[in-house]
Amino acid sequence: MNRTDVLDVSPATAPPLRERAARYALLPLRIFLGVTFVYAGLDKLTDSAFLSATGDGSIGDQMRGVRDASAIPAMVDMALKAPVAFGTVIAIGELLVGLGVLAGLLTRLAALGGALISLSLWLTVSWAVTPYYYGNDLVYLMAWSPLVLAGAPYLSLDSLIRSRRSRLRA
Question: What is the pLDDT of residue 36?
């Protein structure tokens, strides 16, 4: 994105509506996933019940509850060795992924992180949900795919950095 993309919006020079819509098509997805993951991370980090090894709503009890129904019980067993640390890492990961996608900074890497978190949750927490489309983690995994592939070409720190680099090379 260059400065004229943002500043020059006169009717004579504005791109057609379809072109503008296509250009910003991933923005609603970025905002939704970013806000959702920031909220999920903050919610976990501020919930003392979640960040406990045992008790109602604790990460430990949640993991023990899904262990036998998960696709990869060994993955859950690893998390159960240090459930509070695991829950903290997941929460911080969600927070960083959400902030990265919202700001459009290292967007592809942040989206890959979001996809990996969603994949791990799908294979553990929501694996046994039937029918499969009731489980939201698979949907989140698929929703990250366009951002992994395309990044954030507009309204992002990534595009700002790219445009500054290209001006410095010129």
Answer: 98
- For residues 147 and 30, the answer to whether their CB atoms sit within 8 Å is yes
The model's pLDDT over 49-74, given as tens digits with 9 standing for 90+, comes to 999 999 999 999 999 999 999 999 99
Query: Are 91 and 44 in contact, with CB atoms under 8 Å apart?
Result: yes
User: Rounded to the nearest 10 degrees, how much is the dihedral formed by the CA atoms of 147, 152, 156, 160?
Assistant: 140
* The pLDDT of residue 2 is above 90: no
- Which pTM does this prediction carry? 0.86
CA dihedral 116→122→124→129, nearest 10 degrees, is: 180
The pLDDT score that the predictor gives to residue 4 is 45
**Exposed/middle/buried for 158, CB within 10 Å: 0-12, 13-18, 19+?**
buried
Q: Is residue 102 within 8 Å of 38, Cβ to Cβ?
A: yes
Per residue in 104-126, is it b (16+ CB within 10 Å) or e — as a string?
Answer: bbbbbebbbbbbebbebbbbbbb
Q: Are 153 and 1 in contact (CB under 8 A)?
A: yes
* 73 within 8 A of 126, measured Cβ to Cβ: no
